[in-house]
Design brief:
The chain has a single domain, classed as 3-Layer(aba) Sandwich (Rossmann fold), CATH 3.40.50. Helices cover about 40% and strands about 15% of the residues. Helix 1 links the parallel strand 1 and strand 2. It is globular. The chain is α/β, with parallel strands linked by helices. It has a five-stranded parallel beta sheet, with helices on both faces.
Amino acid sequence: MRENMRPFNILLVEDNAGDVRLVKEGLNEGKLYHRLHVVEDGEKAMEFLRRQGAYSEAPYPDIILLDLNLPRKDGREVLAEVKNDPALKNIPVVILTTSDAEQDVLKTYEYHANCYITKPVDLEQFIKVVKSIENFWFTIVKLPLKEAP
C-alpha cells in the first residue's frame, strides 16, 4: 500500500465494452486500492490526460492501459503524443491490444511504450493477464508519485 494511502489511478483507453468489463473484473479480484477511469477513444484520452473539457478535474494517472485500435484517434497516435509531452511522458503506458502484428510491436516500442501485451481470447486468461499487470506494475515496480500538473 502506498504511504499516502491514495488509490492508484488507472486510465483504461478501450472502446470494447466487453474488454472494459474484463479489466474491471480482473482488477476487482485483486487487492489493489485503485480507481479505474475509462475513456473509449484516443481524443478523449488526450483530453483526460491534459485535463481539458469534461476532464478538467481528472487525476494524473499512475499508469495507462492503452488499446491500439480506437476510434477518432488510434492508440499509436495517443502513445506518440503522451511520450512527446514533457508533462505526460513519464506515465507508464501498457499496450493492451488484440493485435499481435510485429509492426505494431516494433512501432509502439519505438514510441517508448513500457510493454506490449496481446489480449488473450480466453476469458479466464484475459483476467489472469490483468491480474499479472496489476501485480507487476503495482507490487513489483516502483512508480513515481506525481500529482496532476
